[in-house]
Amino acid sequence: MPSRTMQTIMRNGLWASSMGAALLLSACGNIQPWVKPYERDRLADPIMSWDRDSISSAYLDHIRESREGARGATGSAGGGCGCN
Amino acid sequence: MTLAHRNPARLAAIGAIAALLLVQAGSADVLPDNRADVFWSRYSGGGMDITGKSVLVRKKFSENLAVEANYFVDTVSGASVDVLSNASVIKDERKQKSGTVEYVHDKTTYSLSFINSTERDYVANTTHFSLSQDMFGDLTTLTLGFSHTRDRVGENVGKTDAPAVQWLGHADSRSYDAGLSQIFTRNLIAGLNLEVITDYGYLANPYRSIRFLDNSAKGYALASQVYPNTRTSTAVQGQAKYYLPYRAAVTGSYRYFRDTWGIRANTYELDYTHPIGNIWIFEGRLRYYQQRRANFYSDLFPFAGSQNFMGRDRDLAASQDTTIGAKVTYAFWPEGWKIFKRGTATLDISRIRFKYLDFRDIRDYNNTPAGGNYAAGTEPFYHFDATVLQLYVSMFF
């Protein structure tokens, strides 16, 4: 168990870092974007989409997760066994 | 006691929410177009044939609210090498229903999903919530998500034409994910995803068995697997997409995975997308996956009960697989028709080569190839090729 002093330091640290993050993000809301909205035509092209067809990527993820030990961080959710 | 002294973790959460609320508003986030998909798929490989059929409909009810529904049916025939080594051929069906509600408020998108997946011997229910926030002039998108899955695990102890399911237990899984997507230049976007999953309960696959040395004629016997009842895994993925000078895109990604069972895995993927006008989109895909075995995995244990936990599920073995894939999308209504803005048909073909580095093909026991009989533990390592076909029509309206 950490001592009372340590607990107080941890609490104050968490409070300070939370408020710091809040102020930082608030200030960042005013950041001028270096890629202007009118410069995003290429990024808006469908070929630049992370996932054009969710039905297909969810299916491929299910196939992989049923046959590989690794899982996660692919952005899809699903269920099932894939036991056989 | 003040709020700050009661619960530091809750305080940090309140601080994070305050941070998000303080981000000043600009243009509001936008929901994607309405779409409907009809999907067909076929997986053939390793003795299995799986045919999938699916329908997906996504509809916006206002500029802020969209609903998506998906129904998926997988029909399985045949059985993998593990099942053939221990049981009869299986025919089964998996039905998955899911519903998602998305709500946009200013620069924040909230998403809530329910997924039910039902097989004769396996039922899974998943609830997923995510929150996505555009920041810094919409150059950055932060996504936080949580999923809870409740599984009921059984085993079909009957025959193909007279199934009888014996329920073995439950599993509970919680997933925490965070994603960051960042626009760097007018041609480059990159992302970082982190997902931590914790499982508790019956985590073994009842259709797979361990084998251990004995004095029988075969030299080994089979027994049930014994798995730990907890598992925690962490996956981190980085990806980048670049718009080439001649209207084409290249995507690279890398994922590192580790879990408390000792599995370590690396996944590399490279995609190339090349459109021709507004009619065709061609895509090529290369993927390489490699993993280290789980601590309690062995192809052949020295004797029954030689370890507390014992597994011989090939998903836990050291392995590697390589995928080569191609996809072509044809827009049959590129400029739209009546209520439809666009209609496309897509064909996607992948070929996957699975190679196992410490999982042996015990069907080869007592075969008499040129080298003669195989003693237990000297059979060839298992490998197989699989073909994945997908064909779907998408209508945007």
Taking the sheet with the most strands of chain A, its summary is: none
Tally of discrete structural domains of chain A: 1
Tell me the overall shape of chain B.
globular
DSSP E strands of chain A, number? 0
What is the CATH-assigned architecture of chain B?
Answer: Beta Barrel
| SS-based class of chain B | mainly beta
Q: Strands across the major sheet of chain B, in which order?
A: 1-2-3-4-5-6-7-8-9-12-13-14-15-16-17-18
Plain-language structure description:
The complex is a heterodimer of chains A (84) and B (397). Chain A is built from 2 helices and no strands. Chain A starts with a helix and ends in a 17-residue tail after the last helix. Mean pLDDT of chain A is 73; it is low at 77-84. Chain A has 84 residues and is an all-alpha fold. With 397 residues, chain B is mainly beta. Chain B has one domain (57-396): Porin. Chain B has helices at 3-6, 8-22, 81-84; strands at residues 35-45, 48-60, 65-78, 92-105, 108-119, 122-135, 140-156, 165-183, 188-201, 209-213, 220-224, 230-244, 248-259, 264-276, 280-291, 319-333, 342-360, 381-396.
Structure at a glance:
The complex is a heterodimer of chains A (84) and B (397). With 84 residues, chain A is an all-alpha fold.
Write the layout of secondary structure elements.
The complex is a heterodimer of chains A (84) and B (397).
Chain A: H1 4-28, H2 54-67
Chain B: H1 3-6, H2 8-22, E1 35-45, E2 48-60, E3 65-78, H3 81-84, E4 92-105, E5 108-119, E6 122-135, E7 140-156, E8 165-183, E9 188-201, E10 209-213, E11 220-224, E12 230-244, E13 248-259, E14 264-276, E15 280-291, E16 319-333, E17 342-360, E18 381-396
Features:
heterodimer; A: 84 residues; mainly alpha; 46% helix; B: 397 residues; mainly beta; Porin; 16-stranded antiparallel β-barrel; 6% helix
